[in-house]
Amino acid sequence: MLQNPASKYRAFPPVRLADRTWPDAVITHAPVWCSVDLRDGNQALIEPMDIPRKMRMFETLVDIGFKEIEVGFPSASQVEFDFMRKLIEENRIPDDVTVQVLTQAREPLIRRTFEALAGVPRAIVHLYNATAPVMRRVVLGMSEDEIVELARSNAQLFKDIAADYPDTDWTFQYSPEMYSDTELAFSKRVIDAVTAVWQPTPEKKCIINLPTTVEHSTPNLFADMVEWTHRHVERRDSIVLSVHPHNDRGTGTATAELALMAGADRLEGCLFGNGERTGNLDVVNVALNMYTQGVNPGLDFSRIDEIRATVEHCNQLPVHPRHPYVGELVYTSFSGSHQDAIKKAFAARQEGDVWDMPYLPIDPKDLGRSYEAVIRVNSQSGKGGIAYLLESEYGLQLPRRLQIEFSQAVQREMDASGKELTAQDLWKLFQAEYRLDATRRPQYRLSGESGTVAISGEFQVHGETRSLNGEGTGPIDAFVGALSEATGRSIRVLNYAEHAVSAGANAQAAAYVELRIDDEHVVYGVGMDANIVSASISAIVSGLERAPRAKEASIA
Ligand code: KIV
Ligand code: ZN
What we know:
Elements: E1 32-35, H1 37-43, H2 51-64, E2 68-72, H3 78-89, E3 98-104, H4 107-116, E4 122-130, H5 133-140, H6 144-163, E5 169-177, H7 184-198, E6 206-212, H8 219-232, E7 239-245, H9 252-261, E8 266-269, H10 283-291, H11 304-315, H12 336-348, H13 383-394, H14 400-417, H15 423-433, E9 443-447, E10 453-461, E11 464-472, H16 475-487, E12 491-500, E13 509-517, E14 521-529, H17 532-546
Parallel strand pairs: 1-2, 1-8, 2-3, 3-4, 4-5, 5-6, 6-7, 7-8
Antiparallel strand pairs: 9-10, 10-11, 12-13, 13-14
Helix pairs in contact: 2-11, 4-6, 6-7, 8-9, 12-13, 13-14, 13-15, 16-17
The structure holds 3-methyl-2-oxobutanoic acid and zinc ion.
3-methyl-2-oxobutanoic acid binds next to strand 5 and strand 6.
Enzyme class: transferase
Protein name: 2-isopropylmalate synthase
Subunit structure: Homodimer.
């Protein structure tokens, strides 16, 4: 790279618009959306869509709710032409959808485009020619006047040819290609020349589309350009002002949003931002940004994973796992502090509350995603995520200090393997750590009266079956007494918790005991059983077995 990039690259010139109004604007309603997946998106594919893929994409776009769909560039290839014909001849265009097609400003291409549209009930025909200085100078070798005349004469040709098809409801669209790189005064001159020919009215508008063919500036400068154009073009009340952002600087979404604030009425883009180079505007991103601000975008992404699968199939390109709103990982937190916060916020949330969830800007359920993947455990995670997974998948409500204790065992496992642990992995580790073994159910009898309980039975401790007898104020007290005596160890119950198990773990009750053993070790024990007394007894054995054994006497 250069030490002095200014020797090769120039800064984008600011727009002189001291009285700009867009910074205070708020987006309160959805724009007119136009999908260009089947045209701009398709042109950018390694392998452009065949007709079945195009049809699948078209139907998906219709299902999502797009009312304007640029279906192709019929003069560019036979497939594009044939697809347009198929849509018309097989009557596949719903009554509330308008198809759009693109053509360069060249007579044979324009004629062929109208031919492709013969018989369509309504259509947007989109004319473009390059207007930027570099194109005028280097590529086309045309003066400003010649460019204006090119646009004007082809706009006239549109009008003339359209008159030959009076049964179609035509809308005309014009794009000064590379608007983002064209002097504002010159793009206004070309736009005004085109609308002077088309003579749109407030009742029958034309569309003027402003592409950031290549993104060159920060989005605020583009917003200034749009506001300038919005305020200066002639016949503004008869124009639908559209923008068509690309994403070369990675700011396509911001560009589109600020352009709406600056006066644009319509957005062109692709699902998940497919398109030339770094892509077209990601319309899903903008639509769902609006949704999270309480604005109905008028597009339905409630089955976003299905839409992603279709788009991946049609485009034969993957969507990145971290792609906003749709990526596989975008509703997942690995960080322990994030997990803690999410867990607490879910617990505090009441049905009908405004969505106010740390680290989750949108409710994944609104897009057909589940909460399952919200919390995943890797070496960055803490007790919150572990507890959440064990509760959501296995119905365990671990006491807080047990969460801390178990998270250390998880951390050791992570450090050894370096891998993410699934809920199932955690459950296996939990079973091993707390010796949850359904085959060693305690066999015992309880008896007693007036505040005294006697227990006698067979219990497995440290792999040996022992007969124990004891008395106490309740079954736990009686068992602790019997076990202490048999093992010669001091066992004190510091805390006890139990609950019915609602899911997954194959037992009806869970008991957790925090024990102080030999006045030295504080450990948790866990027991699970259909019977709560058996679960408690197993929890005490589990705790004892987990305590370091240095001072343990052999069982008599
Ligand atoms: O990016 C662009 O400039 C285009 C035009 C043809 C609208 O796709
Ligand atoms: Zn484009």
